[in-house]
Every structure is written in C-alpha cells, then in structure tokens.
Amino acid sequence: MTETIGFCQETRPESCAFVLFGATGDLAGRKILPALFGLCKKGLAPRNFYILLAARTPLSRPELERRLSELMARACPGAPPEAVTDFLGRVDYLRADYESGEFYRALGARLDELDAKHGIKKKRLFYLAIPPAAFGKVTDGLGDSGLLAEPGDRGGWSRLIIEKPYGSSLERACAVDAGLKKDAAESQIYRIDHFTGKETVQNVLALRAANSVFDETWNNRYIDHVQITVFEELGLEGRADLFENLGLARDMMSHILQLAAITAMDLPSSFRDTDFKTEKRRFFESIPERERTAAAADAVRAQYEGYRQEPGVAANSGVETFLAFRFFVDNDRWRGVPFYVRAGKKTGAKCTRISLVYRKPEHGIFRGMDIGYPNIFTFNIHPDEDMSFSLIAKHPGPRLCFVPKTMRMDYPERAGETAAPTDYERLLIEAMAGDQTLFLSSFEMQFLWQFLSPLLAAWQADPYGGALYSYTPGTSGPPQAAALIERDGRAWV
Ligand SMILES: NC(=O)c1ccc[n+]([C@@H]2O[C@H](COP(=O)([O-])OP(=O)(O)OC[C@H]3O[C@@H](n4cnc5c(N)ncnc54)[C@H](OP(=O)(O)O)[C@@H]3O)[C@@H](O)[C@H]2O)c1
Question: Distance from the CA of 365 to the center of ligand 1, in angstroms?
C-alpha cells in the first residue's frame, strides 16, 4: 500500500437500513447490488447494516437467493463463498404494491422488526431504482406512512437516493423534483451521477488543492483551451428501449458538466459539502444563457452508421449517438478560454479524458515560432487511470531543436489497497454518512436541463435533417466534430 502523508480524511458510514425499490431491475442488478456486496465483502459497510429489497415481482426466499448468488458470481467472480453467505444473511425481500397504503404499513413493520434484529434506530436509506415516473407515487407513500423522518429528527434519519437523468425536459424534471420535495427536504435527497464517485475524478480536485503549481496556472492567463472526451467503444448493449428515449445528450450531459465543474470551479475553502456546492454552483452560474445558446447553435450531432439496424431501434430513428460542442465560461478565471466537448458511442476505444492545453510561449526567444502546444495536462479518468504532462524539451545533440516528452503518473498505485471502493460503493458510503458533497443539488439538476434545453430545442425542430451527421463505428466521430475545433486553429488531442 502506498504510504500517505499529512491530511487524511475518511468518511464513515452510519449503521443503517438500505431499502432498494426496483430490486429486480437493470440498475439494481448491474450496479447497486454488486456495490452493496462489494461494501460488505471489503468490510466497508457499516457495522450494523441490512438490506431490504422491494419490487412488484413475487420472489420466494430460495428464488431470491438463487438470483442473488448468480448475480454475485457474475459481478464478482471468485468471491469467497463465505462473503456470499454473509451477504445473503443481511438481505430480505418484500413484495411491493406501490399504490397501496397496506404496502407501506407492511414496509414500516418489517423495517421496525429488522431494525430491532440488527440494533439500528430508524436510520434508513431508500434507493429509488425505479422509473422516474414512479418516484412520486413511492415518496408519497413513504411520506404518508411516516417513513420519511424529518431532517434533524433525533430518533433517526431517512434519505432518498435517485438516479439522473430524470424528466424529459426542464419542466418535467422540475415537476419530478417538486414531487420529491413535497415529501422530503433537499437535505434528504441524494441525486447520483456515478462519475463523481470515481477515484480519478476525486483526484482532479485533490491534485489541484494540494499542488499550487497546477491550480495557480489553471486560468485564462496560461490555459489556451480545455478538452473533455467521453468515448464508449460499445453501442447499445441491449438497452435500445432506454437509449431511443434518451439520446446521447441526455445520457451524457450530466457527466460532462460534472467533469467540467470539478476541473474548472474555484476550489472550495473546505471539503464540506456546503462549501463545495457553493463553488460548483458559482461555476455553473458563470455559464449564462447566451453562452448556452451559443454552444447549442453550432453543436455537432451525429449517429453511427448501422444504428438504425440495431435491434429495438426505429428504422427512421433520429436519435444522436454522438455530440460535440464548444462553450465558454464567463468568469475572471476562464473568460475567453474555450471548453471543447465530444462524447459518443462506438467511438473507438473507451476513454474518459480531460485535457488542459496550455498557451504557446508568447515571450522570450521562441515567441512567434510554432513549437506546438508545449504543455498539456491530461487526466485519464476511465478506464485508464493516469495523469500526464507533456513538455517540449531540447532534442539531445548538436542542434537546437525540440522533441515532445511526456511525464506520466500512473494512478492505480493503490493496487495493494484492496479495500478501495468503486464509484457506486463510494457514493453509497457517502450517502450512509450523510455527506452530500458528491451528489447533485436541485440547482445542478435544473442547470443540467437549462444547458440541454437549447440543444434539444434546435434538434427537435429538425430531428432528421442535415443537422444529424453520420460516422463510421470505431472512429472519433464525424468530420464536422474535427471541423468544430479546427476552425479555431486547434485540434483534438
Ligand atoms: N439502468 C441504468 O443503467 C440506468 C442508468 C441511468 C439511470 N437509470 C435510472 O435508474 C432507475 C432504474 O433504472 P432501470 O434501468 O433499472 O429501470 P428498469 O429496469 O426499467 O426498472 C427497474 C424496476 O422497476 C420496477 N418498475 C418498472 N416499472 C415500474 C413502475 N411503473 N412503478 C414501479 N416500479 C416499476 C420493475 O420491477 P418490478 O416490476 O419487479 O417491481 C423493474 O425491474 C431509473 O430511474 C433510471 O432512469 C438507470
């Protein structure tokens, strides 16, 4: 294990009950149940902890155990059998009927019973892994039956976790939010974007805060532009029904905005969630409507060749699988620095990357000479986890000429740190600890839609028109995405 130095902070989850609605679904099976199992297996779960799964599908105990065992074998191959047994011992199942008051009474009674068994005092995390249209019904049921404890209630706490993106427009998203807030306070609502839980995303902030050599130069005096790339090698992975209603912009924009904010927001005065959210909000407020409209006006939207032949996709689908755009941030730190973004499916190797491209030398002996961009700081977020800093050095030998050199820092030096949490595991720990730092506020959810709305409005006006370009799978998107940045005299790195 790498030795740490100085400041060290650890979030400790409180003993609690974890209630998972929609436990038979895709998200539950692929992400949440494996994360819960991971927490238990790594010893990161709270000491007193149980999981109550709820869904409308009737499941007997043997059937539940068979499903969970298969799921664990798939998600964590090679997990010790005793870890699976321990996990199954913490899990219970309740068949749900979200419309009926009887269900919430039965839920309350089962929770009281399990609380007593596990020595827990009404500390409850409710994960809504169900379609957003059903959120209101469930939170109303929880609220009416008194299962959503008031914030500050000394007898316990209740928190709701929900997944982005919800709603299909700013108005619909606000309506879903209003439904949630009817029953719960903002301090009880944890909106997940799992990118914020990634180890390497956390490192962006840590690196800025701990190394003044970087943060002091992350401004329009030194940085020429910023690039964010979110590429996926795969296409639909059997989720055509979801993606056809979503499109890439809605699917990815929250991740993109979170990466931009964590890279470019002013550093908070502490890692407390209130300070953090204040700075993040200030960053988003520095992208006013005129900048969002300008970003939408020349955004490049494309679909990969063969998308319409994918199973479950409409033969005339106008849904985008690629997006590129440029935006500006109107604050003292970033005014005049373009942020270029591209994201797509079937765009070559999977890669999430942030690059800060420094200005070329403007003074001194090399002013006016083109020696390329001397410095590019790159964070590889996923699946590669590293940081690199490119420099221009003198070519060894008798002549004075230049070679690019790259300093690379591998991040996963934590190889010995077997207990390192995954993104979902970390976010569940934070929610159990009552820390909202890594979760999206109501403001951020609204801002997401304010950013998306002009893009979507322009496309809805002409969904099948020339505005939808096409690209060959395995490439970096359509030529128009290259043109977007090249017209400014720059290139994707
Ligand atoms: N899947 C992902 O990767 C992903 C990614 C981003 C966001 N999300 C969000 O995460 C949540 C869950 O996604 P998912 O893909 O797991 O959804 P899903 O598979 O469509 O649904 C999850 C479960 O919810 C239950 N359900 C379906 N319709 C319902 C209704 N009208 N009322 C109450 N329960 C209903 C079903 O279980 P029973 O019939 O057994 O009750 C189903 O197994 C959604 O809010 C989605 O937007 C998912």
Answer: 61
Q: Is 118 a catalytic residue?
A: no
Q: Is residue 407 part of a domain?
A: yes
Would the pTM count as exceeding 0.70? yes
Q: How many domains does the chain have?
A: 2
34 & 80 share domain: yes
| Any domain includes 435 | no
Which CATH number covers residue 151? 3.40.50.720
Across 136-145, 163-172, 470-479, least confident range: 163-172
118, 194, 225, 255: which one is catalytic? 255
The last residue of a domain, from among 192, 210, 240:
192
Helix/strand/coil for 441: coil
Q: Under the phi-then-psi rule, with left for phi > 0, alpha for psi from -120 to 50, and beta for the rest, what region is 357?
A: beta
CB 202 within 8 A of CB 276: no
3-state class (DSSP) for residue 207: helix
Work out the number of other CB atoms within 10 angstroms of the CB of residue 92: 19
pLDDT for res 467: 83
CB 114 within 8 A of CB 18: no
Question: Measured between alpha carbons, how far is residue 357 from residues 228, 314, 388, 394, 490 in Å?
Answer: 11, 40, 12, 20, 10
Residue where a domain stops, chosen among 158, 192, 226: 192
Residue 25 near ligand 1, beta carbon < 6 Å: yes
Which of 130, 190, 440 is the best mutation target for the ligand 1 pocket, counting ligand atoms within 8 Å of the beta carbon and taking the most?
130
Cα–Cα distance between 303 and 320 in angstroms, integer? Answer: 5
Shared domain check, 163 and 85: yes
**Same domain for 108 and 28:** yes
Tokens of 224: 């020429």
CA angle 8, 13, 19 (to 5 degrees): 155
Range of the domain at 258: 196-417+444-486
**Residues 401-425: pLDDT tens digits?**
888 899 998 876 555 555 678 899 9
Q: How far apart are CA 85 and CA 111, in angstroms?
A: 21
